[in-house]
Every structure is written in C-alpha cells, then in structure tokens.
# Entry
Amino acid sequence: MKPFNLIAFLLFLAGAVWALTRSEPTVREIQKAYFSAVSPFLKSGSALETRARTFLDEVRHSKELEAELEVVSGEVGRLRIIETRIRDLEKENAQMRHALEFKKATQFDVVAALVTRRQPTTWWQTAEIDAGQERGIGTQFPVLSNEGLVGKIDWTDKGRSSVLLLTDEKCQVSAKVEGTPEVGILSGQRGQFMGKPLLRLKFLSKNAELRPGQRVFTTGRGGIFQPNILLGTIESVEKGAMDSEALVRPSVNFADLGTVFVVLARES
# Structure
C-alpha cells in the first residue's frame, strides 16, 4: 500500500475509534452533523434518479408513439390508395352512364370507345382510341362526345384508331351560326399549347352580326359530318376588308377526353 493511502486509512480508523469512544450525546451530535452534511447530496441524488427514471419513461413512451405513428401512417397510405381507386371507379362509372345515355338519346349509329393515348407534343391534334376495324370503324368517320363534335378518324387498325381532333387546323368543318344566315369553315389553330384552345370560323360575310355566346353547328355539307352537331360558341368577331372571322370556344373539353363515339352510319 502506498504511504499516502496508508496514512489516510490510519487517520480514518483513528477518527472512527475516537467517535465510537465518545459519550452517547457526542456520538449523536457527530451522527447529526454527518447526516446534515450528506443530506443535500442524498436529496440531489434522489432528484437525479427521479429525473433519470422520468427521462427513461419518456423515451420508452416516445418509442411506443413512434411505432404507433408508423402503423397509422401505413393505414393512411392504404386508405389513400383505396380512396383513389374508388374515385377512379366512380369516374369510370359516370363515363359508362353517360355513354349509355348518349347511345340511347343519339339519332346516330355509334360505337363507344375510350381514349387510350395522347402525346404531349400533339395533344391538341390527335388522340388514340381502343376501337378499330373489327368494330366497323373506317377513316373519315365522325367522332362525337356527349358535348359535341370531337373530330374524325384519321387512320384505323385492328383494335385501335387515331382521331384527328377538331382543334387541329387540318380538321375543317362546314359550320353555321345559330339564328343567322352566316356559314363558314371552322378549324383549329396552329401553335396552341397552353390553356383551352380556340377554333377559328373563317369566310363569314363582311358585315356579319354575331355576338358572344351564339352556338355554332355543322351544316352537313361535304359528306363527312352530319348536320346540326354542336361545335362550340362564338367568343369574338374580327371584321376584315373582304370578310369576317370569329373565334369559337369548343363545346368539347379537349383537355380531358374520356369516352367518345364513332358514328358508323349517316342519319336514316
């Protein structure tokens, strides 16, 4: 044992012997002084132990909450997937109801089809549908929706066809303005990439008296489109030196095409 430790031990032993050989009141005074001295340390230790236990309980509770939160998050994710699927089914159901109602109400012999593909670069020009030659569809057949004219069949194959949309400048339709003698050629406009596209009605009379909101229909001329199919409504009129032109807002929502109808035969 080192000398310093030996000296400390001997001093402690001597102090203990001295304390134990004192009278009982003296021993009690020594005990009282000792406990008074160590009492703050005991209280501090007890408080530290309480805080430590509280902290451990909070950590344990936090882990339990984290596990419960993970379970709840998983359930919320599954519910969102189910909700999305329900909305998709509701949309499909609504489209099917509209299709049945349209087929019952229309005077044309039509085949219902779904728009299955659209290219971002030709969004306002073409759309692909899931019906083709096996259902009697041929080129130049008109394509409708329950809102009006969509366009015409551009090419067809087994099980699919391409629709040239009314918003394409190559799709030209003989059109008339409701309640007026005005007749012109309606077509899409080049370079429409943002928002909802407008159509252009050309070759109107020089002094065409038109107002916004008037409806525009097919005339039936040209042998492709049946007469009196809704095309849109007048948006504005531009008068020129020789004739007038009008901007027409399409009746069909070309930004969201779902179910369409290909006309197989002309009105009987």
